[in-house]
């Protein structure tokens, strides 16, 4: 249950970050488009970048895969934390 709650909260928050960064904005000579999206999904987007796969957060498929992969990781951490807590309190 803890993993589901944490994974859901993460997915909503990361989805909000990606959607906010899709709005076109100025920037003049410098642009840091999708830097927040990359950072919020770094457990998936970091290794993908190191392997030469450039995730484009303007594409829905890339954004969903990055957010979904990270949400699964957060779920797993929540599940392991809950299991460790329940074993520790026995």
Short note summarizing the structure:
This protein has 90 residues and is mostly helical. The protein has four helices and no strands.
3D structure, described in words:
This protein is an all-alpha fold and 90 residues long. The protein has four helices and no strands. The longest helix is centred in the C-terminal third of the chain and has 29 residues, at 60-88. It is elongated and about 60 Å long. The model has no long low-confidence stretch (mean pLDDT 87).
Mean pLDDT across all amino acids: 87
Q: Note the overall shape.
A: elongated
Largest sheet, if any?
A: none
Low-pLDDT windows of residues: none
How many separate helices? 4
Rg, Å, rounded: 16 Å
Helix share of residues?
Answer: over 70%
Kindly list the characteristics that best describe this protein.
90 residues; mainly alpha; 4 helices
Q: Could you give the topology of this structure?
A:
Layout: H1 2-21, H2 35-40, H3 42-50, H4 60-88
